[in-house]
Every structure is written in structure tokens, then in C-alpha cells.
């Protein structure tokens, strides 16, 4: 939803994705404004991850168009690498780097320069990893590895934050922390696109929910309305 007459930060128009004869995602459209959150809900295989990859410029739709900040978004677009941050699988970490080294690498690669140490310290504290900064990923619990993936986006610039089931492997207290973090990201005008199985997380942070089933939109609206249509 666009609230001020400006173009949405992210706009998907009739995007679909086929893999050979299989249509994983049927034509779907949505907008995500700065400072707002759209949550994707649905069972595994409903098309959520495919839609997130297209929205983040990590995959090209078979049909339709993705526009970011008013311009068409392509896989090789610099904006997709410098302004769109994605949180995915907790297993995607450098196994031979400590938590701190991993975050420093990400921060420096995204231009943090002399401010890298401060950004890393803040991300470690925010994600409750300060006591584990010298640990290798294999020594972390699954929830701590997930927190490290979230910390990795906090040390880099971002206008759009895309998260694929970030609540996975987090305990109830950590899920409440995550909801607070996403609320603070919205407050700093970051757009958030979130795929989740956790209804409470969607209700806590999302302005709009889109329910997918078999690659197509089954319901959409406020989280309460979209989920209510399924009951």
C-alpha cells in the first residue's frame, strides 16, 4: 500500500516463476513501502522462498516485473547487492571464521571502513552474541547461528530487509526479541518483507499479510483479516 503518493520502494507486478514444466509461482503482485512490513505465510512449497528470491533480485521472474526504487530490478543490479539485505539459511556461514571475523568481513565488504568495529560491536550486542564473538559457527547452537545471520545484515547498509523464516530455531524469548528488532527496523524507515510460519510474529510486525498456497495468493489484507479468512 502506498500512503503518501510516492512510488513504493519495492513493487512486484504479475511476477511468476516456472522451472521447466512446473510453475512454482503463479502471477502475483505486491508493494512494500519504506517503514512497512509485508508478511508471506503459507505451508512449505507454497512459493514463499521463490517470491523472496525474486523480490531480492536473486532470481529473475519468468513473467512480470520487479521495480525497486522506481527502476526495474535485475539480478546484476548494484542496488540488489548494496541496499537489499537478505536473511536466509543459518547454515550459510564461513566455517573457518569466528563470529566476529564473519561480521567484520561483511561490514568491510559493504563499505563500513573505520566504522566496522563499532558496527560489529553493536550487532553482537543486539543479537546477544557478544560472549560468543570468538566462537566458530560449528560451536554455536542452531539459534545462535540464526542470530549470527541476522547480525550480518545489521552491519551493512539496507533499505529493504528480506527474511526467510527468521524465527526458525529461535526460542520464544528470541522470537519476541526478533519482533522488537523488526519493529525498530521499520522505525528507521527500512522496508521489511518477511516469510514466516509464525502467526504471532506476523501479527506483531506486519502491516499486510499475503497467504500463499500452491504458488498463488489465497488471501491478503491485515494479518488478522488474512489469517481470519483461513479459519
Give the helix level as a range of percent: 25-40%
Question: Largest sheet, order of strands side by side?
Answer: 6-7-8-3-9-10
- Report the uncertain regions: none
Structural class designation? alpha/beta
Number of helices: 8
Task: Describe, in short, the structure shown.
The protein contains eight helices and ten strands. It has 231 residues and is an alpha/beta fold.
Account of the protein in words:
This protein has helices at 48-55, 78-82, 99-109, 116-126, 142-154, 172-187, 199-205, 223-228; strands spanning 10-19, 22-32, 37-41, 63-68, 71-72, 84-87, 160-164, 191-195, 208-213, 216-221. It is of the alpha/beta class and 231 residues long. It has a domain at 93-157. A six-stranded mixed beta sheet has the order 6-7-8-3-9-10, sandwiched between helices. Strands 2-1-4-5 form a four-stranded antiparallel beta sheet, covered by helices on one side. Helix 3 packs across helix 4, helix 3 runs parallel beside helix 5 and helix 4 (116-126) packs antiparallel against helix 5 (142-154). The chain is globular. It starts with 9 loop residues before the first strand and ends with a helix. The model has no long low-confidence stretch (mean pLDDT 91).
